[in-house]
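Appendix B, example 12.
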Amino acid sequence: MASLRDIRRRIKSVTNTRKITRAMKLVAGAKMRKATEKALQAAPYQQTLRRVLERVVAAEEDIEHVLLSVPQNTSDILMVVISSDRGLCGSFNAQLFKFVMKELARYESEGKKVSLVLYGRKAKGFFKSKGVHIEDQHEGLAPEDFSEVAKSLAEQLAVKLKEDACEKAVICFNHFQSVMTQEPVNAQLLPMQIEETEEEENSGFADYLYEPDGEIILSSLLPMALQATILQAFLETEAGEQAARMQAMDNATRNAGDLIDRLTLQYNRARQAAITTELTEIISGAEAL
């Protein structure tokens, strides 16, 4: 049985841990609010840009662009995986890696060869020992770097598609649905898929005339749309990471509090037992005299 001194030390240790987890929860909450605001602000821009592209495609016929072209390569897949750099965020990274491994198995069953482009220290550490070809890896990105990184990645992917280096490029990340829910998704980046929705078909956008012509407009908008899609993935990953960390630290704080209550009860019982034993020994000694 643990001594009173050991129990006191453990109570102090758990109390200090609770202070740390509580502080980390507050910091993650502040960062999450900023990241969520950026992710939600970027989503309408991406949706509007997508609708404009759908209208242009509906209004023009036989538009050709390198980002829309289907490559002759039918065997190579380029997969971009975005994880966090730090841990202590619950199952945020684990659920993403499990999802990516299922996607890799699916591609391999179809006879595809997959190359990974990794963003985040956790992804780098996980896939290093999985026997998967890693084409490039990055870590230590700050939120203010996301825009430049998205632009650079979009340009690299466009070059690979133009050089017929891959059949398609996809991106896997945790889609931010709410503070409680982040769902792993696999979205195709290239070749870009712009399909006319039923709403667009019934709205008569094909009657619009564009100046300059649709091909010139698409040559400007398609790279912007690709960059916006990648940037949105980075922003949602950041928001999801902070939300997951806030939830994990909240759970850790509550668990620490429960453990302190149990240890305090154990300490009081041990202290009462020690007092009772001392009183019994004193009474027994007095009676013996």
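The chain has a mean pLDDT of 88. The longest strand covers residues 168-176.
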